[in-house]
């Protein structure tokens, strides 16, 4: 449950005193906010607190985390010259606090820790748009208008993603998640031609490390087969696609999802019924990781989240 | 091409002098902005300038069109008591300027005029959230937490939609489009259980008028079959779903779409290639209405739009 923290009072209290990058630069704070949802909710895994733009920030790209907006870049990517601003990542120095946080967490946690990074397309979309976007119009215009430059951009970003994820695994994470948050804005042909090859290079570059590789984005219903093909062991499915339908597209791999996070504001019996329907759609098959279909909304009641975790544990007790 | 106007300098000039509701309340201004894209682009049909919230505004619901945001409601829908604020629509008086605009337009246009209305779910989402939303969390919580009240709300809104569309047809529009802009945020089961029945009542209530009924929303890949089932003659497909794949889900009906509006910022040869791929996916089958997969983005160059219309006309010359 990515971003479960946002709904927790203890997380909000901490964030009032510390900026986002304060947290990311402090191993102790990163460990603390990563542990918060595990302590309170009893989930089966922890996900490292970080952001898709962390490696970009770490190599000196000027990015600010603006409250209520997201990451905003001082100088969006516009041309070939901007490639030079994307120097290679040296994880042991650039991501030292992140890796130290991983080392702390693996000693403190009783559950596996999941590392993560942004996929090349989603990082590119942030860089080209200069921040969050509704349409990704500049990104797509670059993609189809200057495909070679776009590929070179994605290749640089793939190097960042891969270096970051490999270092996280070496520091102790038990699984990795590659977030292609915005890939769902693409036509499958665009995804296959312009995005899949570099995502496949990231996922393939982790194969020797023998950790499960989770791949996820929202509104990716039409892309699920391609995202599996990119080399994921587990593919996340958002709530728009029925889990069984999505799983059929993913094929012989594991699936993660897919309760609509927006339903958690309903009275508990309705929430429980919705969770049961996700479990029914999975049909008790091994290889289903119960999860929300996207991040927890900030207004969600933590008690509902804790109750949901208990409910799913009860319903799946005795299963592998 | 809905909202083609937003990208035209003549539209922006007019909107600097007149608010959105000034335009909607003036038959002459509505006619003028409806004609603008037809004159400049040479499209095969005009779409009436209006908004999904027009009938709500017309029955006295307090809604403001906030620039850069969209419609914002002074008092969001919260409980059963709020149903009373949704009185029935009397189109001849409440929508008099809209209908007068239709009558002017049908005498001035050489191409068919398409009328439109919001589908009940999308109007409900606006009312419950109080404006545009990313997650529709309140709407979904009401939908699954209080399904009977939600159905009564949708029923009231269906009455508005249907009354508005019937009156537009009687005033002379040649086709109608029912926009369920936000339905794509729903799981197909939620759509089938809570939304489809009232949308079907709107579309079914137009059957005797013998005009094509177009039904559209974004991120509706998983819903296309259900949206066709709701009684549409033509189903719009956004750009995320390949046109041929979407058409297979829609079945024996016509299809509208689906060029990604975001690609229009690329150099012309790339845009032309993208348009050709949409035409290829349609395979020259009768029943394909070439269109964008969503509204025109405001930054789009009108010359690119005009060139696209010419290009599609050339490529499809001689076809029915």
Essential attributes:
49% helix, TIM Barrel, 320 residues, alpha/beta
Tally of DSSP helical segments of chain A: 14
- How much of the sequence of chain A is in beta strands? 5-15%
**Structural domains of chain A: how many:** 1
Largest interface, counted with CB-CB under 8 A? Answer: A-B, 37 and 38 residues
The main pleated sheet of chain A reads as: 7 strands, parallel
The low-pLDDT segments of chain A are none
Q: What is the quaternary state of this protein?
A: homodimer
Please describe what this structure looks like.
2 copies of one chain form a homodimer. The first copy, chain A, is α/β, with parallel strands linked by helices and 320 residues long. Chain A has a single domain (4-231, 239-247), classed as TIM Barrel (Alpha-Beta Barrel). Chain A is 49% helix and 12% strand. Chain A has 14 helices and 9 strands. A 7-stranded parallel beta sheet of chain A has the order 1-4-5-6-7-8-9. Chain A has a two-stranded antiparallel sheet with strand order 2-3. The longest helix of chain A is centred in the middle third of the chain and has 25 residues, at 147-171. Chain A is globular and about 55 Å long. The two termini of chain A are 20 Å apart. The relative contact order of chain A is 0.11. Chains A and B meet through helix 8, helix 10 and helix 13 of A and helix 8, helix 10 and helix 13 of B.
